[in-house]
Amino acid sequence: MLHSAAHSILLRAWRAGVLVAIAWLIHQQHDWLSAQRDATLTPDRIRDFFPEADSLGPRDPQSGIQKVLNTYGDTLGLVTQTSPVSDNIIGYSGPTNSLIALDPQARVIGIRILHSDDTSDHLATVLKNRPFFNTFKNLKLGDLQPPEKIDLVSGATLTSDAIAQGILKRLGGNAPSLRFPEPLTLAEIQKLKPDAAQLQPLEKHPDIFQVLDAQQNILAQVTRTAPQSDAIVGYKGPSDTLIVLDPTGTKIESFHLRKSFDNAEYVAYATGDKFFAKTFTGMTLDQLATLDFNAAGIAGATGATQTSWAMSEGMKRRAAALIEPPPSASLQIQLPTLKPADYGLLAVIAFSVLMTFTSLRGKRWARALHQIALIGYAGLYSGAMISQGLLTGWSRHGVPWQSAPVLLLLTALALALPLFTRRQFYCHHYCPHGALQQWLSKRLKNKNHLRIPAPLNRLLETIPLLLLTFILVIVMLGLNIDINKLEAFDAWLVTVAGWGILLTAIAGLIFSLFTPMAYCRYGCPTGALLKFVRYAGASDHFGKKDAVALALLLLAALLHWQLAWT
């Protein structure tokens, strides 16, 4: 009995371990291949937006911004990419890197997809929808307020949602100051802190610097009001102010004007007023961020009210930006968010679980209602199915537990239930494509079933395994082949699917009229994967499917190390 229990645990652990190991190798291989991809923009790729573009300036490390220059070195506009900030935003099966083109005032003039690891059919649907991309026009870099409403693309909701989140995340980040491009320097700080030996950016706020002495003691923290103050005009123009904070970064020690486009006379009044210079000393960032200047009785510098007000307002806005996460951060969903359609899908999944584990599956009315739910809602309406494109995409980029939690739950059940309960939940009680084959065979009652000879049947049954091998090679070598076209499931998204995949799906359904469940038996690599993880009970042992899985694991390892070491 003890031996039997140990055998059961070891066999299940082996099968789960093989899947995890292959997924890990796919992920590592994708990281390696991505690192080889040249993400450098060239003028040719942006001339649709800037016809006179001749060169690009250096890329700002914080914002990713590059200036677009003409032959005379004049700035035509700006460009940035959503990667790497969008790399962890998964659509249906992968992230997307978008180019954002901006005018010289940092307002969006256009969006272009540079690269996407998402499903090609979903991406094509998004690319055809120009109103979706026009939503982002005239948004400003560094503007913390996202559009009131973004209409996601029907049939490609997850893909368009990921693209939108990536764009807004990049736009909502700290934009570089276009008015005051000069960064803080050590020499500048040493005028105030003579013992300063190093400026070290904070990890959470790279535009705040710790001032360190030679012994690495923290003397202070410093930041500046630009770019928050770029649009705050005093009498004649904006100003950039240096803010010196205490070593903890919570209280203001002093502030000092760095540069101003305001009237020189008024600037002199503001910087020479000793009372104004001490206005905010000792105040915390929280106090400054919510300060009502009038209620607090704070007056500007004598003779330079507008200029000193602009400096004060710039510091107030900078303090608010430091203590509060930007509103766009809400787009980076912290907890799984359910869309209205997800509740219906949850109900279908729950129904399928009941059909798997209860006697309900023996009742004709329940089976009929279940098939309607699967074909109508899970298939035609939702298109929520597991595929190799989905699984390999998640292996490469991570699972979208925030944006697609119900699809993730479905996948977890599909893999875990056969492994731990011996019940084939997904293939037998959820898959809409399988349900449609069953429904057609029962309704049409075709008695002219093909009798396939045993040798041919064995040969046909190897096709799913060959497809799994082919898919693994595609993924590990980074070949430009759409994996989703090797399965029939995208055909359920009728508005998205191409004619090729629709004809393939229809041909498979016709074949199933003459050979029951033909696609499941002879054409489905995902079904083959789920059969591998299924534990059949005490009689189960390390067999042919485990040997095939070991061979696939060794193949993945060989392809990974062969590329990584060449």
TrEMBL record:
<feature type="transmembrane region" description="Helical">
    <location>
        <begin position="491"/>
        <end position="514"/>
    </location>
</feature>
<feature type="transmembrane region" description="Helical">
    <location>
        <begin position="547"/>
        <end position="565"/>
    </location>
</feature>
<dbReference type="Pfam" id="PF12801">
    <property type="entry name" value="Fer4_5"/>
</dbReference>
<keyword id="KW-0812">Transmembrane</keyword>
<keyword id="KW-1133">Transmembrane helix</keyword>
<feature type="transmembrane region" description="Helical">
    <location>
        <begin position="403"/>
        <end position="420"/>
    </location>
</feature>
<feature type="domain" description="FMN-binding">
    <location>
        <begin position="91"/>
        <end position="174"/>
    </location>
</feature>
<dbReference type="Pfam" id="PF04205">
    <property type="entry name" value="FMN_bind"/>
</dbReference>
<dbReference type="GO" id="GO:0010181">
    <property type="term" value="F:FMN binding"/>
</dbReference>
<dbReference type="InterPro" id="IPR017896">
    <property type="entry name" value="4Fe4S_Fe-S-bd"/>
</dbReference>
<dbReference type="InterPro" id="IPR007329">
    <property type="entry name" value="FMN-bd"/>
</dbReference>
<protein>
    <submittedName>
        <fullName>4Fe-4S binding protein</fullName>
    </submittedName>
</protein>
<feature type="transmembrane region" description="Helical">
    <location>
        <begin position="343"/>
        <end position="360"/>
    </location>
</feature>
<keyword id="KW-1003">Cell membrane</keyword>
<dbReference type="InterPro" id="IPR052378">
    <property type="entry name" value="NosR_regulator"/>
</dbReference>
<feature type="transmembrane region" description="Helical">
    <location>
        <begin position="459"/>
        <end position="479"/>
    </location>
</feature>
<feature type="transmembrane region" description="Helical">
    <location>
        <begin position="372"/>
        <end position="391"/>
    </location>
</feature>
<keyword id="KW-0472">Membrane</keyword>
<dbReference type="GO" id="GO:0005886">
    <property type="term" value="C:plasma membrane"/>
</dbReference>
